[in-house]
Amino acid sequence: xxxxxxxxxxxxxxxxxxxxxxxxxxxxxxxxxxxxxxxxxxxxxxxxxxxxxxxxxxxxxxxxxxxxxxxxxxxxxxxxxxxxxxxxxxxxxxxxxxxxxxxxxxxxxxxxxxxxxxxxxxxxxxxxxxxxxxxxxxxxxxxxxxxxxxxxxxxxxxxxxxxxxxxxxxxxxxxxxxxxxxxxxxxxxxxxxxxxxxxxxxxxxxxxxxxxxxxxxxxxxxxxxxxxxxxxxxxxxxxxxxxxxxxxxxxxxxxxxxxxxxxxxxxxxxxxxxxxxxxxxxxxxxxxxxxxxxxxxxxxxxxxxxxxxxxxxxxxxxxxxxxxxxxxxxxxxxxxxxxxxxxxxxxxxxxxxxxxxxxxxxxxxxxxxxxxxxxxxxxxxxxxxxxxxxxxxxxxxxxxxxxxxxxxxxxxxx
Length: 414
Fold this sequence. Notes:
The chain is of the alpha/beta class. It has eleven helices and 15 strands. The strands form three sheets. It has a seven-stranded mixed β-sheet. The protein is elongated. InterPro entries: DNA_methylase_N6_adenine_CS, RlmKL-like_Mtase, SAM-dependent_MTases_sf, TRMT11, TRMT11_N. It is found in: Cytoplasm.
């Protein structure tokens, strides 16, 4: 159901939640509900009048809205439903443009658009308290962002990740796989100072081929700083460095309040790290003006190992690590989620990618101090073995794609 009934200690707390969430549309003080109009009216009659009266005074103004999920009502039907509430002790005047108090009738007609019932499955009536931040999804849309890449994070998911990281004003937030900085933007919106690193020189400096349709090359002003400037957030931008996340570049000690990142899976962006000539898989020359460097494969299991170790060492106590973990669904188990003795698993949410693949949004919190002698302790007792299976995620992902294409071609031939 799109409607949830929550128990929240105070209206102030409800407003605080809605100032952050991009998932919830609105929150209401529930006065009555039922599975039919009759049940709703009975529920409303049983609601304490003393709790209604402060919002129904003769010197106040009000308005009643109707929202139907999965069905459209005519204006006449809406008026009929509003008139049926005349038994409520409204004493104020109706003001459709700027009312002091707004009330809503919410009707749930189920989730199947091809089988809409004549009557709603559930009805609710309540006083509007606050709206969520759904408009951020549109105002921060990647479609209109100045600088994007092949894997720029969807705005809605970026804000969800910032909320999981409990990002707050004056925090320092870091993304070790920063790309075009999509995750920095959501954190900066909430008042955090942001920085990141990436191994790709061209991405950090906004060089090379553009990812946007009908654009061949990136412009001279396409970079992460320009993205934050676009939203009036440049003052929160610390810097972005060309760096290999598998190599230590930061001084010892606590640096970050949150680490929020989306590591490469090897699908649209390569998983690679710098290495010696012996480790060479391929040699990449950026241009005649830049030195040649050697890159080698960076297995997913090693990415997670390095990421958790880095978070354990450089997060402040109580700081959070939020990242995406790609999984092959037929083989997935909870044991495959990487662990570290300094980090506590807070949440594990799934986003489907295909019938056989998904990615898990993993949130971890630092609960104990990092000690150098314990840096590899989470490799003991086989804890490292289960998530080595992630190394073949790319092969499993494309094997599924190949099978689907073959099936579609076979079906078309029939």
